[in-house]
Specification:
Layout (H helix, E strand, L loop, with lengths): L12 E6 L13 H19 L2 H6 E12 L8 E12 L2 E10 L5 E13 L10 H6 L6
């Protein structure tokens, strides 16, 4: 289980989502795969908003691992607050935390811990986490 009582730091990146009809599964709530898509969308948005221009030009990120804990259901038309922040770098991977809350009651619906690795666009090879990346994404150990 992910550090379930982990609180999002003040510098967490935020992007909101509105639950759409296509997000709903046969059980009448947001399908698990939608949360995975939101994890990806949050990470990409955070990268595009915070990364240095040279890093945006030369790097892409690939997922090494996702771990998601589902805690509550989201329903059609719910507004979802998505938060993401980075944890510790280790070798060529970076921890990224994501948390999804229902805006109406601020209840945590799901949370994820992902490991991401930077890849050089030209060589398509994993690369080390540079000082530039560390400067753009300071770790947030809450």
């Amino acid at each position: 289980m992910i550090r379930s009582n982990r609180k999002a730091p003040a510098n967490a990146f935020q992007r909101n989502f509105i639950v759409q009809p296509e997000d709903i599964d046969i059980l009448g709530h947001v399908n698990n795969i939608v949360y995975l898509r939101w994890v990806q969308d949050l990470a990409v948005s955070h990268w595009q908003a915070a990364a240095a221009p040279n890093d945006l030009k030369n790097l892409v990120w690939v997922v090494v691992r996702h771990e998601i804990d589902y805690r509550r259901s989201a329903k059609l038309a719910d507004e979802i607050i998505g938060l993401t922040w980075v944890g510790s770098p280790a070798g060529r991977t970076f921890e990224r935390y994501s948390q999804f809350r229902r805006a109406s009651d601020n209840k945590v619906l799901a949370q994820a811990l992902s490991l991401w690795s930077p890849v050089n666009r030209a060589t398509m090879q994993a690369t080390d986490i540079s000082k530039s990346i560390l400067n753009s994404f300071p770790t947030s150990e809450a």
